[in-house]
Design brief:
single chain; 222 residues; 68% helix; mainly alpha; globular
Length: 222
């Protein structure tokens, strides 16, 4: 029963994550750093942004090998489903020009991204390829997670912007809001983990380990 719930969290989370990325693109007010990079590559290659997300995700996954990272079901599923859901959302979403529509669309996209992050991570089927790159570099270099994440995201943001990716108020809003939103939804969707009872200590007296503690670094799921 618990495994079935985890699978639902995984795939619903991935689809919603891709949909939220599509809404961010549709709002046209700036994207998160990785999608700025994907969009910049899309502008130069002529391929869809969702397809570029899949290609980049697969390329990043190859970098796991020298970092000795092990992908899980969620990792491999992430590579394909997020990009496909993004392209599908963009095909269904009508073009919008009015700020009265684009601003609420941006807010919905960021909140939905945080919700999707909570669903995907609580499934516990492995990190996305980009988060795995972050944790792998953290282990190999000894640098803090925050420093490694910031360095990666600033790099892809700069390259994506140079290639023509969209940077704007949405980029700032995402950076500020995604951490608290992800933290809230991680707790909201948390699936209690089975606890083995040690000798002489009832399970009822033990607290389940939460998915997230204090405040997480801004989560870039893919």
């Amino acid at each position: 029963m618990r495994t079935g719930r985890r699978v639902v969290h995984l795939y619903v989370g991935l689809v919603l994550y891709g949909a939220s990325d599509g809404l961010l693109v549709g709002a046209g007010l700036g994207l998160d750093p990785w999608d700025v990079f994907h969009q910049g590559l899309s502008e130069r290659s002529g391929l869809s942004i969702g397809l570029m997300s899949i290609i980049v995700g697969a390329a990043v996954l190859l970098l796991w090998w020298p970092l000795r990272q092990r992908p899980g079901l969620g990792t491999v599923s992430n590579v394909f489903i997020v990009g496909l859901a993004m392209d599908g959302t963009l095909r269904l979403l009508p073009e919008v020009h009015s700020l009265a529509v684009r601003i609420p669309l941006l807010v919905v996209a960021v909140v939905l991204n945080g919700l999707a992050t909570g669903l995907y991570i609580t499934a516990r089927f492995g990190p996305g390829p980009r988060d795995g790159l972050m944790t792998g570099l953290h282990r190999r270099t000894g640098r803090s997670i925050r420093l490694v994440r910031t360095g990666i995201e600033l790099a892809v943001l700069a390259v994506g912007f140079a290639l023509g990716g969209s940077v704007g108020v949405g980029t700032v809003l995402y950076a500020v809001a995604i951490g608290p939103l992800a933290q809230y939804f991680l707790r909201f969707f948390e699936i209690p983990q089975p606890v083995e009872e040690p000798a002489g200590e009832p399970v009822a007296r033990r607290e389940p380990k939460p998915v997230a503690g204090a405040a997480p670094d801004p989560a870039i799921l893919p």
